[in-house]
Design brief:
With 670 residues, this protein is α+β, with helices and mostly antiparallel strands. Among the domains are: 46-55 and 65-206, Aldolase class I (TIM Barrel, Alpha-Beta Barrel); 404-508, Immunoglobulins (Immunoglobulin-like, Sandwich), CATH 2.60.40.10; 514-655, NPCBM/NEW2 domain (Jelly Rolls, Sandwich). It is built from eleven helices and 40 strands. The strands form nine sheets. Strands 7-6-5-4-3-2-1-10 form an eight-stranded parallel β-sheet. Strands 11-12-13-18-15-16 form a six-stranded antiparallel β-sheet, with helices on one face. Helix 7 (196-199) links the parallel strand 5 and strand 6 (204-206). Helix 9 runs parallel beside helix 11. The longest helix has 15 residues, at 162-176. The protein is globular and about 85 Å long. Residues 3-19 and 666-670 have low confidence and may be disordered.
């Protein structure tokens, strides 16, 4: 492990490197390894009791039967110094029977034991590591019955490069004559994907810094798998770090952890890219949904399936990701990820994922196990921070229900005094018509439907859709989230089918007519590279309100935003503003240091970019905002993030009164 922030390693050069079956350390990882590690949840708070209880829980929960066979002791298992003869010494308080006693217990359950060290002078927690002691340490581990060695990258390196240090331990493991899976953990700093497969050093290798049980960190690590297809394969698997599914205590501290939806993204992304599945939660007390996800046989089958290449990212379009993996039996796994916070419909055409266009397909939902008949697009309504995962293949079952998708579409932001349209749509991507379709919509309190809220269609042909459009007006709505619900029923092969959906919009008040300071309005969101974005002061340090007066080139500004790259502030304008103006520059509190780009986006489209350096005077920004719903003020780092205290001085919008809606008569009930 390493305490640095999570970050992707450098993008590799395209070089094919796939390990052969005659690996010097044995053909121990023909498929990605599976197991459990103590680090993420317990950190240094480990003991023989914990490891043995975890091994018991792996068996009792069904995880062992699902394939999680390695029980890995991470850092902090030894005393703080070696013995007089240079040997590693298991901490007698934590492991009174030594590591061999634990290994014997684990082996008695049909499982395997892993141990931890580092390719440096100390481990990440400051314990003795193995640089210069490779032969001695490897032999100790072999004598204790160890089956896996995780080899980190902390401590002094003696001027040696990663490959040389990791090769030394590989040679030492080979010399013991014992089969020990070798896990390289250099965080991608040594670009190990370029040499591990060709030189056959370890069985799997870390490509990223440490994962955390946080959405952004997990996604950053997972994203790097998109670069690994030329390199990963049997006995040389790309490892974006351990699983954090169900981790709600991280290194001994309580954390919110990933939601079930985020955990599905995590599990699906690791599986479709053939990543090692090393759980890190407390398996003794996990919630049922955690156990079900970790042991889902269909997702594990995708991870363990090898057809010649790991899954690849087919599409990365804003908040939509599509990953594809060809399976050994000729089927295709497709992962649809929604990186946004609201539900969206994501679809792929058969030809995009290598399936015959227009042919009858069987589509299996990996999460539920339900199978559907499809001949058109593979489509799903995916909640925010969630994923749909399907396996598409030739039909093997009869009388499958049609693959259908219901979607509810409303504007993401609503003016409290402006009418809009709500759309409900049912897609039929199946092989036969769906009949007697009824669509319904429900609007929340504070909003009034001024047209019919239901419709009926006799049938929907394959590849077609039925649509219900509802006119909606404000009826004294409250500001905040408004949830619009929909449902669809139709006659299926097994009876009346029903599905539901919902969409959430934010009802907001746009800036008042006239000129308004951006620091005076409520923001949709803000992110900042150092502390919070400050209102009317510089960013200062990391606490809220610790900034100084905004000052650029000696000129003091009473209003504005104090940011630090990378930064982003999103402001709702509601289509009623005409322009945005500001003076931008690096704040004088950092002297002549720092280089940034100030970026203005209108509904996600860049409309202005201004470069600024520490010695520059303030520079004007003036941009049209006519018809724009959301304005984004971003600051990008140019050459690193140090000193990038970036000021949006006198940041203001000029707006008009929103149009007065024309009253619409209330419709008769349908």
């Amino acid at each position: 492990m390493v305490s640095s922030p999570s970050a992707a390693a450098p993008v590799p050069d395209p070089t094919l490197a796939v390990a052969a079956e005659d690996h010097p350390l044995g053909n121990l990882a023909p498929t990605p390894p599976m197991g459990w590690s103590s680090w993420n949840t317990f950190g240094c708070d480990i003991s023989a009791d914990l490891i043995e209880q975890t091994a018991d829980a792996l068996v009792e929960s069904g995880m062992a039967a699902a394939g999680y066979e390695y029980v890995n002791i991470d850092d902090c298992w030894s005393t703080m110094s070696r013995s007089a003869d240079g040997k590693l010494v298991p901490d007698p308080a934590k492991f009174p029977q030594g590591i061999k006693g634990v290994a014997d217990y684990v082996h008695g359950l049909g499982l395997k034991l892993g141990i931890y060290s580092s390719a440096g002078t100390t481990t990440c927690a400051g314990y003795p590591a193995s640089l210069g002691y490779e032969m001695s340490d490897a032999q100790q581990w072999a004598d204790w019955g160890v089956d896996l060695v995780k080899y980190d990258n902390c401590g002094g390196h003696g001027g040696l490069e990663e490959q040389e240090r990791y090769q030394a331990m590989a040679d030492a493991i080979a010399a013991t004559g014992r089969d020990m899976l070798f896990s390289l953990c250099d965080w991608g700093e040594g670009r190990d994907w370029l040499w591990n497969g060709t030189d056959q050093v370890g069985h799997f290798y870390r490509t990223t810094y440490d994962i955390r049980a946080e959405w952004s960190v997990m996604m950053s690590n997972g994203d790097f798998q998109a670069e690994m297809a030329p390199y990963a394969g049997p006995n040389s698997w790309a490892d974006p770090d351990m699983l954090v599914v169900g981790v709600n205590r991280f290194l001994g501290n309580d954390v919110p952890g990933l939601t079930p939806g985020e955990s599905r993204v995590h599990m699906g992304l690791w599986a479709i890219t053939n990543a090692p599945l090393i759980a890190g939660n407390d398996v003794r007390s996990m919630e049922p949904w955690v156990r079900e996800l970790l042991t889902n046989p269909r997702v594990i089958e995708i991870d363990q399936d090898w057809s010649g290449e790991i899954g690849t990212r087919l599409r990365h379009n804003g908040d939509e990701d599509v990953w594809v993996k060809q399976m050994e039996d000729g089927s295709t796994a497709v992962l649809l990820i929604n990186r946004g916070t609201e539900a969206r419909t994501i679809s792929v055409d058969p030809a995009e994922v290598g399936r015959p266009d227009g042919a009858s397909q069987q589509v299996t939902d990996v999460w539920s196990g339900r199978a559907y008949a499809a001949s058109d697009a593979v489509r799903a309504r995916v909640a925010g921070h969630d994923a749909a995962l399907f396996v598409i293949g030739a039909p093997t079952q009869q009388d499958l229900e049609a693959m259908t998708t219901l979607e509810t579409d409303v504007p993401p932001y609503l003016n409290l005094d402006t009418p809009f349209e709500l759309t409900v749509r049912l897609h039929n991507d199946g092989t036969e018509s769906v009949r007697n379709v009824r669509l319904e919509a429900v609007v929340p309190d504070g909003w009034l439907a001024t047209s019919a809220t239901s419709s009926v269609a006799a049938q929907i042909e394959p590849g077609q859709s039925a649509t219900l459009t509802v006119d909606v007006e404000p009826d004294s709505p409250a500001a905040g989230a408004a949830v619009f619900e929909s449902s669809a029923t139709w006659d299926g092969k097994s009876g009346v089918m029903r599905t539901t959906d919902r969409a959430t919009a934010l009802a907001l008040v746009p800036p008042a007519a006239g000129t308004t300071q951006v620091s005076a309005v409520e923001w949709l969101s803000s992110t900042n590279g150092w502390g919070p974005v400050e209102r009317d002061t510089s960013v200062g340090n990391q606490a809220l309100g610790d900034g100084l007066p905004l000052t650029i080139g000696g000129k003091i500004y009473e209003t504005g935003l104090g940011a630090h790259a990378p930064s982003e502030v999103r402001v709702y304008l509601g289509g009623v503003c005409e322009s945005f103006d500001a003076e931008v520059g690096l704040d004088d509190e950092v002297g002549n240091y720092g280089r940034v780009d100030f970026v203005v986006l209108a509904d996600g489209v860049e409309v202005a970019r201004v470069a600024a350096a520490g010695a520059d005077a303030a520079k004007p920004v003036s941009v049209s905002m006519v018809g724009v719903d959301v304005m984004t003020l971003a600051v990008d780092a140019v050459d690193g993030e140090n000193y990038d205290h970036a000021d949006w001085a006198d940041a203001r919008v000029r707006c008009t009164e929103p149009p007065t809606p024309t009253p619409t008569p209330t419709p008769s009930p349908t």
